[in-house]
Specification:
Helix 4 (about 55-70) runs parallel beside helix 9. The chain is globular and about 65 Å long. The protein contains 16 helices and 10 strands. Helix content is about 45%, strand content about 15%. It has 2 domains: about 5-35 and about 215-400, Rossmann fold (3-Layer(aba) Sandwich); about 50-210, Glucose-6-phosphate isomerase like protein, domain 1 (Rossmann fold). The protein is an alpha/beta fold and about 425 residues long. The strands form 2 sheets. The chain has a 5-stranded mixed β-sheet with strand order 1-10-9-7-8, with helices on both faces. A 5-stranded parallel β-sheet has the order 3-2-4-5-6, with helices on both faces. GO terms for molecular function: carbohydrate derivative binding; glucose-6-phosphate isomerase activity; monosaccharide binding.
Length: about 425
């Protein structure tokens, strides 16, 4: 399980204060563990087996094998919650498949799209367009460009290379029926940012050779733990309480930090989850992420001596998996004190020193993960989704809607001449 520790040398939040807050909010945990009726249409992720049970996993594996047997590249077309989870896993873990996964439909840059297209020539290409309602412009543009590319290369049979993940009855499903694309369910009761453990996140991961059964197993074990643990014994409840107590004390930013750059795209998933879920009604912590040790030479200065508006949450991998020994040579470079050291030990020393220094000035949460693999990714996805549900409820907002995301679209559609 993910193990949580909280340190605050600044004295902003005592253990007694946190425990009292959790006692006051215990009903929120009880309701979330049961699944609240008011959010019934958004809680498909709460039970892992509902959309990642054996039958669905077997179906995903069958479709993924079809791509792996013949393909060289899968282009995933989606934005935000439609690609963040898959990208987090496929870019962090070794690719066990010959199929390379690329990502499009997440911006409107012509230069970026041309770079994607340039990588496709001479390769066997498949695409997976992911859109819950197929009204978002970025994936719509990406799908048009890439399906035209496939049609030009493969002719009438191009449709066998198109997988579309959407909701039943949507325009995207209608396109599948009309043009013979393979349709995968995007659950109606799961929002994009909560969709890591269903077709949305699992199909691209399976194509890349990721052990999705291990991911689901990790999530299932985390579900069992978080749905039964009470009070302060529940790590997600404790994390949500820390976030809200610190928010009440005037902190306005939470910074996710790690000394493992392979978490780069997981950081993006985490940022979207909390920004979209809690940033409403004039409330919410602003979630940001950093890559240590690189960012210690910039953001680290702000943390140590800048405006005290943030607290840090560290992802701590206890058992890194790659050994690299620093060997001596005949160049007197001033770093002989590192001779014979394992780079993992050096990175660990940097992490511990940073955590000690930062926690002396501001509150720091430490989430311990045994190792970085499929099982731990499944655990982290479920842990943060459940914690976000709790935290948003404590904050007094709906953790599952996103009305502000739609505001800019009216102006954009007007400028582009869309009238419906």
């Amino acid at each position: 399980m993910v193990h949580l520790e909280f340190y605050d040398g600044s004295g902003q939040a005592s253990c007694e204060e946190l425990n009292e807050y959790m006692r006051q909010k215990k009903e929120i945990l009880t309701r979330a563990q049961a699944g609240e009726e008011q959010y019934r249409d958004s809680l498909g992720w709460l039970s892992v087996d509902e959309w990642a049970g054996e039958e669905r996993i077997a179906e995903i594996e069958t479709f993924a094998k079809r791509v792996r047997d013949d393909g060289d590249i899968l282009v995933v077309i989606g934005i935000g919650g439609s690609n963040q989870a898959a990208r987090a896993v496929t870019c962090a873990l070794p690719n066990q498949s010959k199929v390379k996964v690329l990502y499009a439909g997440n911006n409107i840059s012509s230069a970026y799209m041309k770079q994607i297209l340039a990588q496709l020539d001479g390769k066997s290409v498949y695409i997976n367009v992911i859109a819950k309602n197929f009204e978002t412009m970025e994936p719509g543009i990406g799908f048009r460009i890439l399906r035209q590319y496939l049609r030009k290369r493969y002719g009438a049979d191009y449709n066998s290379r198109v997988f579309a993940t959407g909701t039943r009855g949507s325009e995207l499903q209608e396109l599948c029926v009309a043009h013979g694309y393979t349709f995968l369910d995007f659950p109606e009761d799961i929002g994009g940012r909560y969709s890591a453990l269903c077709n949305v996140g699992l199909f691209p991961a399976a194509v890349a050779g990721i052990d999705i059964r291990a991911m689901v197993s990790g999530a299932r074990d985390m579900e069992q733990n978080l749905k039964t643990a009470a009070g302060a014994e529940n790590s997600a409840f404790q994390y949500a309480a820390i976030r809200n107590v610190l928010y009440q004390k005037g902190f306005r930013m939470e910074m996710l930090a790690s000394f493992e750059p392979r978490y780069q795209y997981f950081n993006g998933w985490w940022t979207q989850l909390f920004a979209e879920s809690e940033g409403k009604d004039g409330k919410g912590l602003y979630p940001v992420a950093v890559k240590y040790s690189e960012d210690l030479h910039s953001i680290g200065q702000f943390v140590q001596e800048g405006t005290p508006v943030l607290f840090e949450t560290f992802l701590d991998i206890e058992n890194p998996d790659e050994e690299l020994i620093l060997e001596a040579d005949d160049v007197d470079d001033g770093f002989d004190y590192l001779n014979g050291a394992d780079l993992r030990e050096v990175n660990r020393a940097a992490f511990l020193a940073t955590f000690q220094a930062h926690s002396e000035r501001l509150p720091c949460v430490r989430l311990k993960i045994k190792e970085l693999n499929e099982y731990s990714f499944g655990q982290l996805f479920y842990f943060f989704e459940f914690a976000c549900y709790l935290s948003g409820s404590m904050l007094g907002v709906n953790p599952f809607n996103q009305p502000g995301v739609e505001n800019y679209k009216g102006y954009m559609f007007q400028a582009l001449g869309k009238h419906k």
